[in-house]
Specification:
The chain is of the alpha/beta class. It has a seven-stranded parallel β-sheet with strand order 3-2-1-4-5-6-11, sandwiched between helices. Strands 7-10 form a two-stranded parallel ribbon. A two-stranded parallel sheet has the order 8-13. 41% of the residues lie in helices and 14% in strands. It has two domains: 166 residues, NAD(P)-binding Rossmann-like Domain (Rossmann fold); 130 residues, no CATH class. Helix 3 links the parallel strand 4 and strand 5. InterPro entries: NAD(P)-bd_dom_sf, PRISE-like_Rossmann-fold. This is SDR family oxidoreductase.
Amino acid sequence: MNNIALVVGASGIIGSNLAQELLANGWATFGLARNPRTELAGLQPIAADLLDVTSLETALADLKPTHVFITSWMRNDTEVENIRVNSAMVRNLLTVLSPKGSVQHVALVTGLKHYLGPFEAYVSGGVAPPTPLRESQPRLALDNFYYAQEDEVYAAAARDGFTWSIHRPHTIIGKAVGNLMNLGTTLAVYASICKETGRPFRWPGSQAQWEGLSDVTDARVIAKQLVWAATTEAARNEAYNVVNGDIFRWSWLWGRLADWFGVEPVGFDGTIHPLEAEMAQDADLWRSIAAQHGLVEPELSRLASPWHTDLDLGRPIEVMTDMANSRQRGFTVYQRTEDSFFDLFAQLRSDRLIP
């Protein structure tokens, strides 16, 4: 009960699941966001802008967190801007907290673009990184805002004496509304549209992703890893991949997802069919579906992020990660991937987000 958590991005797909995990473990938990939500019982909302130091100083004036979990980022048009903005967000927060002397541990969530490159140079350069991806692989010779965020954490830790952990998930599967990177919900919405219209549930991605090995990260698994790393002595001052612990091929999983919705699956046919183009004209259709079924979110853009799903499923290489670093230190949580999807679909239906 002496642990006081500040979850930055508590309304997001990772932050909301982390807040639930912390509260279930008896932590005093504060959720920071520009527009924090208050529906999670026990979560104490803090409204602040990470790019405004005065806003942070005012919002955090009476709070002395022992543990800080940074799960949010801001997308910009170029990687140079991503670096400037997202490093400033981390730097501002840790600078404002520094005089308090209360912070014992800072956890930063990044992702596999650490190994694959940023959005504008994704899996480029002609040389694919070796898989499974391992934390020991060197940084790429590319601008990358993940590196800039890490460096801000390292610098603040050296200044203030707290421990740190870096967490690199693969594609996150979990519930969030308004999230920029939400493959599970995007596929659920796409399948729902296919069901309503009779369209085939067509694989949108590359042959390499269809045939190759892959893995994903359940939001509940990364939540548990974040708490584990913050409370386990042997886990501190390390970077960790975090995935479910199993591997799969989309050629195997695609039909199972289609069966859940009762739609016709179509596999890779020799051509990539981006979801961004496939769903480009579906906003009005989704509003009609929402009205017909009494759904609570009629705006397609609040649920689906086809641009990011295309980025994941269109990769020209297979991608999976190695979990040995955290396994050797005692993190043994495992999640069956098809159940990650099925649990999410059931929750979305129960919450009236899909028909």
